[in-house]
Amino acid sequence: MRRCALFLLAAFAWILGFTAADTGAGTEKKGVVTYAEGQVKKKPSVSPAWQNAPVNTEVVSGDMVRTYPQSQAELNLLQLDVIRLAPKTTIDIVKLYQETKEKRVKTEIKLQQGQLWAAVHEVTAQTDFDIAAPVAAAAITGTILQMRVDSDTTTQLKVYKGEVHITNAPERTDLQPRSLKPTQVPGPHPIPGPHQVGVEEWMYIVKAMQQVTISKKGAIVSMGDFSNADPDEKSDWVKWNKKRDIEWIRGLRKNR
Q1: What are phi and psi of 242, to 5 degrees?
Q2: Each residue of 96-119: pLDDT tens digit?
Q3: Cα 66 vs. chain centroid, distance in angstroms?
Q4: Does 192 map to a domain?
Q5: Domain count, the chain
């Protein structure tokens, strides 16, 4: 009788383990460094020290990744999305495909300083993919984009494909999106509630081949179209990313 009970208990545990593995429950989502040129490091959330991050280094939620002068890196996230770091860039992987209380799958990456390129596959109604800068946050819908944060936190966003919803109020979701067009930004003024902001809270939809530049105070200072013929678009950084994007798209098609 005891042997039978032990057998049933073992079988039940095996079934539970199989079910968890099959659904992915309890497993931590990981990315991997797929390209590392020069000095690339990561800092896990559980460690105060930066560690070398060569190719095949895994990254998870809570990790920070940094490139140094004359260095570049590429992170492949679940073979779905790609983040590339230019020299002297630091990102914080806040969340990596984590399930929220609302049963949504959320990825959040913060660009603290430097320049990144993101190639994000189509985002569904049940997923969120956000890239935040110190003065704004961008909600990705399935996009190829470039974001740069200067030392004074001035931020520039360029969208090459798809569209991005960008706002200077990261915690607000009730702002009405506006299409990207020149507009006058009001000066400092108080708003209802227990806090005061320096500029009007806003949200814009930035579409393909459009750019927006945001000041360190969170105000839009320029916006409009850009062209592949612009000098900035002929840099080695842009050419390298576009070449890698072709490989990324081929990989997505192969995995379908």
Answers
A1: -65, -35
A2: 999 888 888 999 999 999 999 999
A3: 14
A4: no
A5: 1
